[in-house]
Structures are given as C-alpha cells and as structure tokens.
Amino acid sequence: MKKEATKREIKGKELVWYIVAGVLAVLALTSLVFGIVGHYLPGSLEDNFIKQAEKNIVLDFRTWGVIVLAAAAIIATIDLLVFAKSSDREVEKTLRRQQRLANSSALNEMEIKPAVQTVEVESAPVQPAPSKEEAPAEEKVPEAKPEE
Fold it and tell me: What are the pLDDT digits (tens) for 121-136?
C-alpha cells in the first residue's frame, strides 16, 4: 500500500522558533570549535588569543558551547512537540468533519421505513357464539375398562 505524504503549512511562530534554535545551535558549535582550537593551539599563552579571551569569562568556550547547544536542542524539541500536537488536532478535526458528512449523506440515502406496517387480511363472516341455552348437550364418552 502506498502511503500518501501529507503536506502541512508551517506557521510563522513555528518557523521563528526553528530559526532561533538553529541560530543557537550554530553559535554553540562555533563556541565549541573555538574552545577546542584554543585548547590545542600551539604556542605561548600570550600568543593564544582564545585562551586570553577565556580568562575574562566565567566558563570556557567549550562549556558555554555545550550549554547553548543543550538549550537549542530543548527549544527545538519543545517546538516540535507543541506544533505536532496542534497539527494532529487539525487532522483529527478534518477527519471527524468528513466522517460526519459521510454519515449524514448515508442517512439521506437510506430508505426510511414506517414504524407501523398495515396488514390486509381477508376475513370470513364471523358467526356469533352460541348462548348457554342453545349449547348442545355434552356427549358422554364411555370409560375404558381396566384390563385384567
């Protein structure tokens, strides 16, 4: 079975958060690279401009890179979860609407039968029941004799 790919529109808020997470990730990777290069750069401390810059900040570039990269990953994950849920809600809403329309059109096409059906019966003329005075006498049935 071939599964159709559904295309959905990316909303403005979603796109902004993706861009923010991407920019933070690029800054984090840049900071990580500077930290690694600064650590392994040959030469004296006075010649290493990256190590001199790290003296002025609380943490080194590698630590800041890891922190900012984690923040970018958290922002991207929250963005995906929030907007995926809203997208699922929209899909379910359209499916319910289609199902309602299909059910209503099926009801319109159904033949509606009446709840009560009339039945025609040919009847013979009814004779009145005999009264007690006119009732025939009961016939006596001979009793069976027991066998010996």
Answer: 777 777 777 766 655 5
